[in-house]
Protein 1
Amino acid sequence: MSDTKIKICGLRSEADVKLVNAYKPEYCGFIFWEPSKRYIAPETVRGLVSLLDADITPVGVFLDEDIDKLVEVVITSGVAIVQLHGKEDDAYIEAVKERTGKKVIKSFKPASAEDVRLAEKSEADMIMFDPGAGSGKTFNWDILAGCTRDYFLAGGLEPGNASLAVKTLKPYALDVSSGVETDGIKDGKKIEEFIKNTRNA
């Protein structure tokens, strides 16, 4: 059995919360970047978080947000972890941790081994490798070889390659959104299969 954790990202409704409560990923994500088709208002998230199983950690996803706005959204929504998906530097990361009291996941676009080395030095509590903000595309996993930190793996993951990702890379966690959707809606069968394949790898 795999120890790799799972994050289902892009939740938008009570139906989505019921699905994650049923299948028990360790994390779920809410998108606070307004241009995203998966954007959800902080007030709505507060209601959804109240329905979430206590064992599932809610994560708020931001991209180059004004820090005052970010702090306000974190307080309003009730998310437990802040995920930064833009060009935020270590000073910004430290300010987020200090002002919110929350742990931070910082996402990096891994185009080369040098990008991986830079990510390893991040002041974030956790790091993520994602080739693009919700692009749904994989990347050359070989460049992650020798990474000295635990990391979330994202980008193009779906039930068919979850097991391979775990066996090949042994990441801390897999992060999936569009890979468990049908026509833009979270699909219970795909979530179940993704989680089963990850756990059994």
Protein 2
Amino acid sequence: MGNLFGECVHEYIAAEIMEVTSERIMINIFWDIKTINLAAIITRIGHITRSMFAETVELLGSDHNHLDIIEKGFEVQRQALLARRAIKYALNNSAVAHKFNFSSLELLYISYIIYFFGMIGQYVLKLAKIVGESKLNQFADLLNEVSAKAELKLLLQRTADYYGKVVDEYQKPNKVSKFIFSEYTDFEASIDDFRKKNPKLWAPVLGEYLKLLIFKIKETEFIMISMENAPK
């Protein structure tokens, strides 16, 4: 019954489980779109996704369960959908847009940032599933490749650090003025090298997800810079 209930809750865009006990389950449902705080949602998505990165890195060196990461991935999707729904409403309702204290152009940029953050959460989730289920599928050889696993862990941690810097920059009053990615000019080459040295099926797949991650993080940076330089 618990799983069925959880699946039902996931179908609500604006619902969040607040408390679960043996006797009751408390859910907070946002009926009034005007009460939504976009900045708080972005902060929450960034916090959850960082946690997903950290737990996925841990999976590569332990027998931790990846199911918690999956649940956090669902939460990122819910929050992203909620925020985009609020932005769409605001773009068609000037009073709500005024409450958000953003121009229409800024709301458009924020919608892209939220979309990219949601995609980043999905890619981390896919990586976690591959690693977490590796004992049961075609990626089982991942567990036996000690040096490759260590290299993958380093690449994933580096991706997590890059994402963390972008999230931190977003929280600052003045957004980035240059690409943080300039610190990672050799990053994609490192991923390609990892894939070449480990031609087995799991390495190209994991490498591709890493590339998708850094591409979306880089796109987020571009939008942040565009938003900072947009007419006020």
Protein 3
Amino acid sequence: MSTVLNPYLGFRDTARQAMDFYKSVFGGELTQSTFGDFQASQDPAEQDKIMHSQLVADNGLTLMASDTPNSMEHTPGNNYSVSLSGDDEGELRGFWDKLSSGGTVTMPLEQAPWGDSFGMLVDKFGVSWMVNIAGTPA
């Protein structure tokens, strides 16, 4: 798997509807997981919220999205990140190190509930980034 760069959109309780809409626009395969699927929130009101959604269109376009947890700020217009994902750990950790230099790490790059290494940061220019390194297949 090569490294993939794509937009990652954040919503407040409407990720499922938004991604269904984008699927109607772009076509392709849509997968969605909730916070409850991964026991990723202690808040009962968040169990059915979308923790991760991915649309891969037949032409290769990729769009990801999630619902922002209640405990996190959500500001329409600033509700996006750039996502880097793949299985080349060296390459992705190198990107992480360079992007985080002079920036702010908002979630350390470490093992996530879904088995991959995941982290979030804001670079020195104010751009939000997510890095996901695929775990070793079982």
